């Protein structure tokens, strides 16, 4: 149930003292091979953190041998000094593990705009290298937590091979790839092209459809590393399916641990003219603060859903829209349908269905409600 | 200081019983001429309320003689029955005032998805017609309030003529025109083309740049009516300037009364390659819940500003951006600048300046912070 479940990986998580809380904050994951195939997707934010700028170079050739991750600081908007910190981290890992720095992915998470303490980080990396073990996956998953209340791990298996994953993320969960740190390992034998195709296919319908608060991070990274240690080369479709399940599971764990959320909301848009239309409509609803606050108040205010749908360019006729919440069709043909009194929003899970009646495509976007606790946590984060 | 300040207008505000609070809820404004020139801009939401669908027909010829407005219900997503309610309101006003229904603009505001009580509304319109007076502007401004805590009025004068305005709006304040109900009167002599040009020019840089919570209403209407009763035909540029001042004043009043807000935030984007770029960047920052929650917490978290800037397509180099809050340049050249400790966020007014260093254009977007009170008010609105 962790990243060291697949054969060929060691990991560790240690405390370097980067976080005021004093909990563990440096994680290291090493791929002992025989293969070093890797694929990675990064934030599409144009203001990328230094570790992202570095790691894009590392994974450009479809290979990576290790990833070092720290919480306690995003190392973003920290200029050349921050980039040197990232580079020094990769050099130190490389030196300790006998590889090139260009094989070491670096990920950071935490507050933007502060320099990381390079001495503390280096000492942490030394300890993490010492602590590497085939049972260290969960320690690594714990060391990458920031405002997460629990670590996030997942695992699926195929015929003779395994995929394991870990993730961190509880805020700034929004689109256009990743939006969190995720490391996925597998002992399946993959070539670079298959790894890349499978990772993009999996993230497109999982992490990319998570929109907790509309805010896109500068540090998002989803890394897949293959050791090939199982000796088994899986069918690409089967591997992609299992990988997608791991990504979906981790995405749902992120959703259910989103900062201050009381409700997990699945917005399913059906009968759209295109998948893009369905995604656009779902994302628009997921970004309506008014709708999200209403869900927090257990108020099935479907007018706020329609007001959001109306801001999109999707194909639909306003007078034909149907909307359901938790299975109750409270709007039919653009008019009041079944009584909103029938909608029970006491459970954490909420489903919204928007029927565009314009085609056959569909998509689901996942989001959270807007709560007092979200405001509290995000008004006090850096202070 | 109200819509009946210009000559040639009468107004009233009465209680029809549409609002549970029992405060006044029907307003009527009549243009007694001699001119009946009018211009109007409406929400760009594709899910338009019935009164918007009706009023678009009324103002299509650049003329209107009266406007009837109600709070206590948006009459949106209420189907043909709701449209008939709007039409019946216009018919009743027309009958009482001796004009055609096609000269009567109708505006509604309140909860989406509920039918208005047509009998109560009709009785209210009768009383509003009886109550019309040349001193009734403020009563009208009070009758259109929903969650507003105060009425909003403004006035400017030219050489022999006057512009008066009233507005309602405290939530769903977002782009793409209006996003509230606004009635502006003038006794200046205008032809339809001038009225339309002046209104579009004024709203483009005022109401259109207000983005309180990113949510676009279905009912937004900004109506300008000219009586011509002053007998003075103003210079178009001067009239446009005064009209823009009235719109700016009303927009600022809307901002300062936004639901649950503790801070009014002006986001100025300077040295942009184009005005569109400046608006896109400003709006992106204005829609960051994380940034808005940080301002509520008096936390000058500039990383959240840059993370939002990075999601746009505007021309800029990430490593060249400067950002100031309340005049303190906390980010210079994409790195930490002056100490964030120097930024005092205790006052209600907050200024953010983003220097894109990509050109000479600029724009300001106005927004509010994200507070516990916003969540509270919007989680309890319809219940």
Describe this structure in words.
Chains A, B: It comes from Prauserella sediminis. Two copies of one chain form a homodimer. By secondary structure, chain A is an alpha+beta fold. Chain A folds into two domains: about 10-255, 4-Layer Sandwich (L-amino peptidase D-ALA esterase/amidase), CATH 3.60.70; about 265-380, ArgJ beta chain, C-terminal domain (Ubiquitin-like (UB roll)), CATH 3.10.20.340. The first copy, chain A, is built from ten helices and 15 strands. Chain A has helices spanning about 50-60, 80-95, 120-130, 135-145, 190-205, 235-255, 275-285, 290-295, 300-310, 370-380, and strands spanning about 10-15, 25-30, 35-40, 65-70, 105-110, 150-155, 160-170, 180-185, 220-225, 265-270, 320-325, 330, 335, 350-355, 360-370. A six-stranded mixed β-sheet of chain A has the order 13-12-11-14-10-15. Chain A has a five-stranded mixed β-sheet with strand order 3-9-8-7-6, with helices on both faces. Chain A is globular. The model of chain A is unreliable at about 175-180 (pLDDT under 50). At the A-B interface, α2, α8, α9, β13 and α10 of A face α8, α9, β13 and α10 of B.
Lay out the secondary structure.
The structure is a homodimer of 383-residue chains.
Chain A: E1 9-14, E2 26-31, E3 37-42, H1 50-58, E4 66-70, H2 79-97, E5 104-108, H3 118-131, H4 137-143, E6 152-157, E7 162-168, E8 181-186, H5 192-204, E9 221-226, H6 236-256, E10 264-272, H7 275-286, H8 289-296, H9 302-309, E11 322-325, E12 328-332, E13 335-336, E14 349-355, E15 361-368, H10 372-379
Parallel strand pairs in A: 4-5, 8-9, 10-14
Antiparallel strand pairs in A: 1-2, 2-4, 3-9, 6-7, 7-8, 10-15, 11-12, 11-14, 12-13
Helix pairs in contact in A: 1-2, 2-3, 5-6, 7-9
């Amino acid at each position: 149930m962790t990243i060291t479940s697949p054969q060929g990986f060691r990991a560790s998580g240690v405390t370097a003292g980067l976080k005021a809380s004093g909990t563990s904050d440096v994680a290291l994951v090493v791929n002992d091979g025989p293969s070093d195939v890797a694929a990675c997707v990064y934030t599409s934010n144009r203001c990328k953190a230094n570790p992202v700028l570095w790691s894009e170079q590392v994974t450009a050739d479809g290979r990576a041998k290790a990833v070092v991750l720290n919480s306690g600081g995003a190392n973003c908007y920290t200029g050349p000094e921050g980039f040197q910190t990232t580079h020094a981290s990769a050099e130190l890992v490389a030196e300790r593990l006998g590889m090139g720095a260009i094989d070491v992915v670096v990920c950071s998470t935490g507050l933007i705009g502060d320099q990381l303490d390079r001495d503390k980080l280096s000492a942490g990396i030394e300890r993490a290298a010492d602590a590497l073990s085939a049972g260290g996956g969960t320690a690594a998953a714990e060391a990458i937590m920031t405002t997460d209340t629990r670590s996030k791990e997942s695992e699926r298996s195929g015929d003779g091979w395994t995929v394991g994953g870990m993730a961190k993320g509880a805020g700034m969960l929004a689109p256009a790839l990743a939006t969190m740190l995720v490391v996925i390992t597998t002992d399946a034998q993959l070539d670079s092209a298959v790894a890349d195709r499978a990772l993009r296919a999996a993230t497109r319908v999982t992490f990319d459809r998570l929109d907790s608060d509309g805010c896109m991070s500068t540090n998002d990274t989803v890394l897949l590393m293959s050791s090939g240690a199982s000796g088994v080369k899986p069918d690409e479709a089967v591997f992609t399916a299992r990988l997608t399940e791991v990504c979906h599971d981790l995405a749902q764990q992120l959703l259910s641990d989103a900062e201050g959320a009381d409700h997990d909301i699945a917005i399913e848009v059906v009968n759209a003219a295109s998948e893009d239309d369905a995604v656009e409509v779902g994302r628009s609803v997921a970004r309506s603060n008014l709708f999200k606050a209403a869900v927090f108040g257990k108020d099935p205010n479907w007018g706020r859903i329609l007001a959001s749908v109306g801001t999109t360019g999707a194909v639909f006729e306003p007078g034909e829209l149907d909307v359901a919440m938790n299975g109750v069709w409270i709007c039919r043909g653009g008019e009041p349908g079944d009584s909103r009194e029938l909608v029970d929003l006491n459970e954490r899970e909420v489903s919204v269905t928007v029927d565009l009646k314009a085609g056959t495509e569909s998509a689901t976007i996942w989001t959270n409600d807007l709560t007092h606790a979200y405001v509290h946590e995000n008004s006090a984060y850096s202070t």
